[in-house]
Automatic annotation (TrEMBL):
Disulfide bonds join C47-C64, C66-C75. This is Basement membrane-specific heparan sulfate proteoglycan core protein. It comes from Stylophora pistillata (Smooth cauliflower coral). InterPro entries: EGF (IPR000742). Pfam families: EGF. Keywords: Disulfide bond, EGF-like domain, Glycoprotein, Repeat, Signal. The gene is Hspg2. Residues 38-76 form the EGF-like domain.
Amino acid sequence: MAASKEAYGKLWCELLSSDKYRDAENYKENTSAHHLSILSPCSYSPCQNGGTCIPIYKYTSYQCLCEPGFMGEFCEKAITSCKELYDFNRFNVSELVTLRLDSKSVTILCHMGDFGCGNGGWTPVMKIDGKKSTFHYNSPYWSNKIEYKLPGGESGFDSQETKLSSYWNTSFSKICLVMKIGQHLGFTVINKQADSLYSLIADGQYRAISLGRETWKNLIGSDASLQLNCNREGFNTADVNPIDVFHSEARIGIVANQENDCKSCDSRIGFGTGGYFDDAVTCGNVAKIEGDNGDRHTPAMGYILVQ
């Protein structure tokens, strides 16, 4: 209600259709009148992080409309992963969302539901074009905290490369690996708990996993080829005592050899790769010298997501 004294000393009152809490965007204060209302549940500003309080007078209650990147009854929780958002809302529709990473708002495409790696919310981390050198094994992007082409994080399994701050900010218990060759999409999941992908890769230390040769080959499809020996798989697969520095290596993947050691591997399947025989393929499959399915030089688009 608004009330004011007219020029002749008479009071006038006007019943307003709303108040500053229910219609904050259209509220305009009238300095010549006094505004009176019943005590609002929003009077104590319960909504945090810039959230808007909407009073529900009928029940002496309120609802907080959160700013992008926040959730919770009071907008008190920053959304730092797609898994958190999925666990909160339980919806299976992939959509653009705002995450709070490094205290900044980052727009990404959250992959929701089972698209090939299992149910839940999956946070994108990197997209690698195997024909480009951006994410070669020796690229500094694997050891630094520098983003690359953020718009690539707003789209799905396309040809845009990206590295998001989720690389060093997002903890997980699962890694989804996807390779795309033509129209073929291959998926596999690594069950691995870590504070971030950066914590597994940046120091260059080898960390073993055991998916098996066939699991890696399934990422490529029926044309995949690997030599039969070594089969060193995991993170940072380069051998610490190689015969020379030119043999196959992968930041995430498997390397193999025709000899019964890992010092001169000539074949690989993985992400962030490099080395002999085809140093230009940075994601996909390279095989030479007695590969179990012949020689291969197969670049792929690679996608890394975590949950």
